Amino acid sequence: MAANKRQLAKNSSPNKKDKAVAVVPKYEDEHFVDSKKPVWNYSLFTDEDITNFRNGTFYNGYEKFGSHYRVVLNTPGFYFAVWAPNASRVSVLGNFNGWKNRLHPLFVRLDKSGIWEGFIPHFKKGDAYKYYIKGFKGAETKKADPYGQFSELRPATASLSWTSEHKWKDAAWMRKRKKHNSLKAPWSVYEVHMGSWMRPVKTDEESFNSYVQLKEHLVPYVKKMGFTHVELMPVMEFPFDGSWGYQGTGYFAATSRFGTPDDFRDLVDAFHQEDIGVILDWVPSHFPYDAHGLFMFDGTHTYEYGDMQKGYHPDWNSYIFNYERGEVRSFLISSARFWLDQFHVDGLRVDAVNSVLRLDYSRKEGQWKPNKFGGNGNLEAIEFIKQFNETVYRDFPDVQTIAEEASDWPKISKPTTEGGLGFGMKWMMGWMHDTLDYFKMDPIMRQFQQDKFSFSMMYYYDENFMLPFSHDEVVHGKSPMVYKMPGDEWQKFANLRLLYTYMFTHPGAKLLFMGNEFAQTTEWNYKTELEWPLLKFDCHQQMQDCVIDLNQLYRKEPALYELQFDPKGFQWVDLDHRPESVIVYMRKGKKKKDNILVILNMTPVVRRDWVVKVKGKASWTEIFNSDAEKYWGAGKVFNPSPEIKLVDKKRQIYEIKVHLPALGGVIFR
Q1: Which of 390, 404, 517, 549 is catalytic?
Q2: In the predicted model, what is the mean pLDDT of residues 291-311?
Q3: 404 among known catalytic residues
Q4: What are the tens digits of pLDDT across the range 66-84?
Q5: How many degrees, rounded to 5, is the angle at CA 358 between CA 357 and CA 364?
Q6: Residue 395 a catalytic site member
C-alpha cells in the first residue's frame, strides 16, 4: 500500500489527550479563573501547542480552537478560542446575550500567538454565536467560528455550540478497512450530491432528505448497486447551494441542511456497517468572500494571501489560502484530520489540486509572479500538499487521499520520499476526455481514432489512477452520458453499456456520478432530484442492472483489481484490426488461472467466428456480455462454448473462435 512508503512528518503527536483540566496562560492582570466575571480566564493551550500552531504542525486544532464544552470549578459552560492576530478586541456575541458585543470579551494571550480565549459559564449546547472582532485599522467584523463544528441553517450564518454524543458501531469495519481501502482492493466509487440525489418532495427546491433519511434510502441503494465506496460532494458547511459545496465557510462543520453533526456521523456509521467506505470532497484551495467567513477575518488578510496575484482566484471569484503561514497550514491539516478522526471517513478527494500547485493557474502573462527560482510552482503550497499527505498517512494509514488534478505535474500519487506529492490516487482526466471523445464519434470513424482509445496505457503507470465520470461531465451543456453516445436509442444504450464495460475492465479505480448508472436523460441539476421515474422503462432499469453486474464482476474477479496499478496486470492482445474496430486485451491476476480476456466490438456490426490468439489457456468461458437481453441488448450473440484450438504447441498459442455482438463487449475467464 502506498501509505506504507510515506515519509513521516515531524511534529508532536496530535492524538495525545490533555491530562490537565486547564493550562493557565500568562496574562497581564489575571492569572487565575475569576468566577465573578462573565468570561473566565481559562485556557487549553500548552506552550508546545502554540509553537506547533505557529510552525504549521498543530494538527489537532479542532480539540482546542472553536467552542468546547467544559466543566470548570463545578460549573458547566463552553470554552472559546479564536485566532485573530490583528485584532484589538474580540468578544463572543449571540442569542445568549442579545447579540451585544461588549458583554463577553475574550482574553488575548501575551505570547503574541494572536489567540483570544475564555470560558463562558452556563453557555449551552446548540446556542448560536459569532465573534465580534475589532481588527486592523479599527475594522469591525462579526464572524462565524472558523473551527465551529455546527452552523445555523442558511441563510442564517452563526455558529452553534456542539458536543458529540454519538456512539460508534463500526468497530468491525475499522478493524478490516485497511484491506478494503488498499490500492490492491477494488475501488468502485458512487459520487453523490446529497441535496439532489433524492428529495422528499421533488418540486420543492428547499426540501432535502435529512442525514437520517439518506441513511434509510441512500445506504441500501449503494449496497444494492455493489459500489465499494461512496464519495460525497462537499459536506462542509457552505452558504450558496449553487456552489455545490465547493465555496465553503465551515471547514469543521457538517452542513446543517440535512441535520446535526451526529446525524452525519450516524450516516457514515451506517455505510460502514454495510461494508461501504466513505470519501469526502475537501477543498483546501480557495474560499468565498462571504462576510461571516474567513475572508479579511480580522480586518486584513488573515487566512488568504495579501498579494492578490497569489491570493485571488479570477475564475471562481474566491480567495486562496496563504500556505506560507504556519497557522493557516495548521488550520487546514487540522480540518483534514478532523473528518478522518472524528467522523471515521475513509478518504479525502482533494479538489482543484492544480490550482494550488501553480502560480499561473488561470492567469495570463503579467498577472502572476514567478517563484524565487523563476518557475510557476507555488513552493509553499507544494510543501503544504506534501505535509498534508505525510500527516494523513502517518496518522491514518488505512485511508486514501485522492487528487483531482488534470495537468502533467509529475508524481502526484508517488511517495514524498521519492519526490512525489504523496497522494494515494489521482483522477485520470486525460483518459476521461479521450474516452468520451472516442465514444462520441460515429462508429464508422472510430477506426481512424483508435490511438485516442489506446493512448491511456502509454502513461497509465505514471500514477495510481482513478477513472472518473464525475458530476463535471454532465452539466453546463455537456449533456448526460447516454446522449453523448451516437446513433438511435438502441445504439446509444448499447454504446453506453460498451463504455462502462471498457471502464470496469480498464486498470484503475472507478468513479460514476449519480444518475450515470441508469442513464439519466437530462443534465444534473442541483435544484431537483435524479430522474427516478425513468426506472419504469426497461432500457433504464436494465442499464442499472448492467452496472450492478459490472460492479459484482469487478469485485469478484481478482484480475480486475489485484494488479490494477502494476504493469503486470494488463496486456494488449490485439490492436491490429482498426477497420473493424475490434480491440482485445487481457487483465491478469496474481494467479494465471484468474486471467480474463476482454473483447470490445466498437461498431454496430455483428462479427461471427472472430479469431483471437492467446497464450497458455486451453479453456475459456464467457462471463459477461454487454449485449445480453437482460441489459436491454439484442441477446442473440453469445458464446456458450467457444471453439478453441492449439495452433503453436511450442509457444502454447491457442486460437479462440468467438461471436461478437454489435456495439458489445464480451469478457471471458
Answers
A1: 404
A2: 96
A3: yes
A4: 999 999 999 999 999 999 9
A5: 160
A6: no
